[in-house]
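Complex record, two chains
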Amino acid sequence: MIVLDLFHYWTFIALLMMGFYTVIAKNNLVKRLLGLSLFQSAVFLLFIGIAKVEGGTTPIFTNLVDTQVFSNPLPQVLILTAIVVGISTSALGLAIILRIKEAYGTIEEDEIQSEEEEA
Amino acid sequence: MTEIFSVFLLILLVITAGAAIRTTNLFVAVMLMGIFSLLIAINFFLLDAADVALTEAAVGAGISTVLFLGALAFMNEQEREQAPKRLAGLISVSITALIIAYATFDKPAFGDPNAPAHQDLAPWFLETTQSAVDIPNVITAILGSFRGYDTLGEVFVVLTAAIGVLFLLDTPSAGNMLKRDEGLRHYLIPRMVGRLLIPFILLFGLYIQFHGEYGPGGGFQAGALVAASMILYALLEGQDRALEVLPQRVLTFLMAFGALLFGGVGVIGILNGANFLDYSVLSSDPVAGQQIGIILIEAGVGFTVTGVLLSIFHAFVARGRTQ
C-alpha cells in the first residue's frame, strides 16, 4: 500500500517543513533554535527510516533471535554521533542568545535590529 | 500491528511538533520538544535503532530540555505576537514541501530489502565485523573502528562547542558566585526520590559504557547518562555541592583528556607502522587489537561527552548566579 510505504517520508517532510517555517518566519531567537533542532530531528528520522529493513532486527549478533536479517547499521552510526553533536551546537547557540539578551535586553530579532539602527 | 502503532506514533510526532511551534509560551514549547524527543526515541526503537533510541532519550529528552530551561530562566518566557513574515513563510514552505513530496514517489518503499541503501556497504559491514573485529554490536564496530575518523571528528566538534560555550559564558568557579545555590534541598520528596535514582543512573551509565561492545550502548550514551545523573544531583543539592564532587577543572581536564586519548590511540597505530586509527597493531592478534582499540576510544568518547555536557550545564547555571 503506497500510503504505508511512503508514510515515513511524508512525516519527515512535515517535520522538516515545520522546522524550516519556524526558522524563517519566527522572530524569537529561542524559538528559531527550537525550529532548527526540529529540522535536525526530521533528518534523523529520515536516515533511521531508510536504515529499516522489513523483518530485520537491531544489528547486534546474538542467539536470542532466530532471524539473520539486520537493519542497515551505517545510517544508525551516522545519526548516533549527530545527536550528540546536535546538542553541543544547540548549547553554543543558546550561549550566544544569552549574550545577545544581555547586550540588547531582548531576544526578538526585529527589536535587536531597530536598536542597532538607533545606535 | 507494529505498523499501525508506528503510524500512530508518527502522527503524534507531527502533532507535538505543531503544538511546539504554535504556542507563544517558550516554556511550553521547550517541554513539548522534550516530549517530541521521547516520542522520536520510541520511533527509533521501532525502526531497529536501539543505540540511537538510547542516545536520543538521554540527550534529546533529558539534557537538551534541561539546557533550554536553564537558558530560559534569563529570558522572557512569553514570545511576542507577530505576523508580518507569516504568509511569505507559509508559501515558500508549502512549495518546498510539495517538491520534496513529489520526489518521494520515486523512492524505494519503506523497509524494502532491495533499496539501494542496503546493497553495497551494509552487507560488507555485517560480514566484516564478525571476521575482523568479532564483537556482537555492529554499530559499535563501525563507530569505533571502520569509521573511526568520523567519530574522532565528532568528538572534536563536541569539544569545540564546549570551549565556545565556556568562552561565551565564563568558566564557573566558586569564588565569583553571589549566593549559595540551595537547589531543592528543602523539598523532601524530590530529594529522597532523586537520591534513590542517582546511583542507579550512574550504574546504568557505566554498564552502557562497558557493555557497549555486546549490547546497545557505548561512549556517547554512557557519557550522556553519567552527565544526566550529575545534573540531577546538581538540581537536587545545588550547584555548589555538585562542583565540590566534580570541580570544573576536573571536567575541563576530562573533556580534553578524552579527545586526546582518542587521538593518541590513533597515533600509537602510526608509531607501530600502521595507518592512523588502525587498531590491528595494538596487540599481536589483529582481532584482539581491534577490541582493545575500541574499548580505549569508547572510554575517550565517554570522558569527553561527560565533561562537555556537565561543563555546558554548569556554565549556564553559574551565569545566573554571577550576573
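Note: Chain A touches chain B through 84 residues (CB under 8 Å).
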